[in-house]
TrEMBL record, chains A, B:
InterPro entries: Homeodomain-like_sf, HTH_TetR, Tet_transcr_reg_TetR-rel_C_sf
SUPFAM superfamilies for this protein: Homeodomain-like (SSF46689), Tetracyclin repressor-like, C-terminal domain (SSF48498)
DNA-binding region: 42-61
Keyword Ion transport in record: no
Domain HTH tetR-type: 19-79
Keywords assigned by UniProt, alphabetized: DNA-binding
GO MF, one annotated term: DNA binding
Protein name (Swiss-Prot/TrEMBL): TetR/AcrR family transcriptional regulator
Keyword field contains DNA-binding: yes
Sequence segments annotated as region (Disordered): 1-20
Signal sequence annotation: none
Length: 194, 194
């Protein structure tokens, strides 16, 4: 096959094969992480799910954390709500999207795995990127009415109204709790003495 | 040695030995969990730190989750602030105690391990107990001014102002952020339409 960039066909074939392996293994590792938990992400289990040999996996991803890091990186962008411009509605909807992400994508297991492995540099970078991406829209929205420490506080508080019940009790907050949280924050801004 | 309850001296000696082993191993497992993370809690590592044989550990605690569960159970009560009765001060101080617990006792690693293993029934029970105990005082204090969904929301939000930066970025909120969060919640109550 002509490549036009001077590489030999076999290089392109090799790259494509490695890419395909990587995609397959990343998908399998993410599936094991989200359905079985981080402790289940082993070379044996991921190889089994992916349909590759353990030897192949160990060659490219020597340590378990390499598999977990690749799995999380393969998630791509965090889901966000398309803003309408009405702040209360948008804050509520963004939290509902986060809640759905935990229910459907098991983002709680992703958060947990990133925290568990954060002493590894590659995971600390991934954790930073994923969480910054995840909170980006909340910062934008709350940044319209808060700044400084109060902005950081408000973002953490609304993140927490979904993340804390999920991580601490395995429960999702219902809509009434999400709405109550948003109203406390909006009321708390409107009447702050600062 | 006379025991007065009909048991033989050798039973009492055996019980004492098992108790001592349990306490030693629990302490070692907790140390490994908090200083090295949950993935490091293996029979080999805990046996090394505790100074017992792996065989002894496998006999009493067959699975890794048994070691982790025992470690967390050995923590006992969660630390709380002694209330002064001034709500704003007490809320701020309780969050500072929680923050200190993460810094000094690595409560973040405990929370993370409980979330990771929550599909195991013994860990789900421990997680419920530890987190309920941990949030008990926050519920009491915020229960003075909130009820229903707003109370659940307020507790999760203030828990989140410490827990989220810790779990998501490995950072502690500073006093300014903690105070801002408490003020948003107190202002948010004072002026809510409900």
């Amino acid at each position: 096959m002509a490549t036009g960039d001077g590489s030999r066909p076999s290089d392109t074939g090799e790259d494509a094969r490695v890419s395909r392996t990587r995609a397959d293994v990343a998908r399998a590792a993410l599936e094991v992480l989200t359905t079985e938990g981080s402790d289940a992400v082993t070379h044996a289990r991921v190889a089994e799910v992916a349909g590759y040999s353990k030897t192949t996996l160990y060659t490219h991803w020597p340590a378990r954390v390499d598999l977990i890091a690749m799995a999380i990186e393969s998630i791509g962008e965090m889901p966000h709500h398309d803003r309408t411009g009405v702040l209360r509605d948008d804050l509520i909807a963004e939290l509902q999207v986060f809640r759905a992400g935990i229910v459907e994508m098991r983002l709680d297991r992703v958060l947990s795995a990133m925290a568990e492995w954060a002493s590894e540099e590659q995971m600390a970078r991934i954790r930073n990127r994923v969480n910054t991406d995840g909170q980006r829209q909340m910062y934008e929205m709350l940044g319209e009415i808060f700044d400084g420490p109060a902005l950081d506080a408000a973002v953490s508080m609304l993140t927490g109204v979904v993340a804390c019940p999920a991580m601490m009790y395995g429960n999702m907050p219902d809509d009434a709790v999400i709405e109550a949280a948003v109203d406390v924050v909006l009321n708390g801004h409107a009447h702050s003495k600062r």
